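Task: sequence design from structure.
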């Protein structure tokens, strides 16, 4: 990437992260039937985005002049992952968190790097089940469960 592009992206993401943190404070801090409020997730994402954008800005200060290699942009991979994210959001309630997240991760991982099916299945299943257990059972939050047939 170019130094200018990275600096602009760092500043834009810094502002977006700041907006997430500020706006998440206006969301209610508790939800019915959940000990974890709806403001936690956007605030955490905002803080992570703030920290990563600060890291990007500091790294752009260390850049040396390097010839930019012209790698082809991978539009098709972007389109596939974008469409799968839209479908994921649409089927989250009917299929439940674990199944829809597993399928989304499977599609995303295979789009990024074909092959390695066993590691893809293991990572997608451990992540979807692990996050569900951690959030729903450990933190007492609520996520869509398994579908009722």
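Answer:
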């Amino acid at each position: 990437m170019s130094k200018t592009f990275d600096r602009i992206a760092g500043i834009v993401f810094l502002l977006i992260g700041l907006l997430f943190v500020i706006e998440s404070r206006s969301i209610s801090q508790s939800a019915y039937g959940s000990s974890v409020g709806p403001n936690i997730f956007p605030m955490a994402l905002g803080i992570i985005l703030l920290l990563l954008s600060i890291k990007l800005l500091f790294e752009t200060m260390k850049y040396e002049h390097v010839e930019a290699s012209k790698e082809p942009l991978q539009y098709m991979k972007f389109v596939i992952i974008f469409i799968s994210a839209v479908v994921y959001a649409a089927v989250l309630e009917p299929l439940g968190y674990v199944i829809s997240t597993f399928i989304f991760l499977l599609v995303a991982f295979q789009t990024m790097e074909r092959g390695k099916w066993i590691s893809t299945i293991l990572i997608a299943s451990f992540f979807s089940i692990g996050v569900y257990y951690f959030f729903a059972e450990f933190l007492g939050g609520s996520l869509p469960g398994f579908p009722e047939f």
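The helical segments are 3-24, 40-61, 75-95, 97-112, 117-138.
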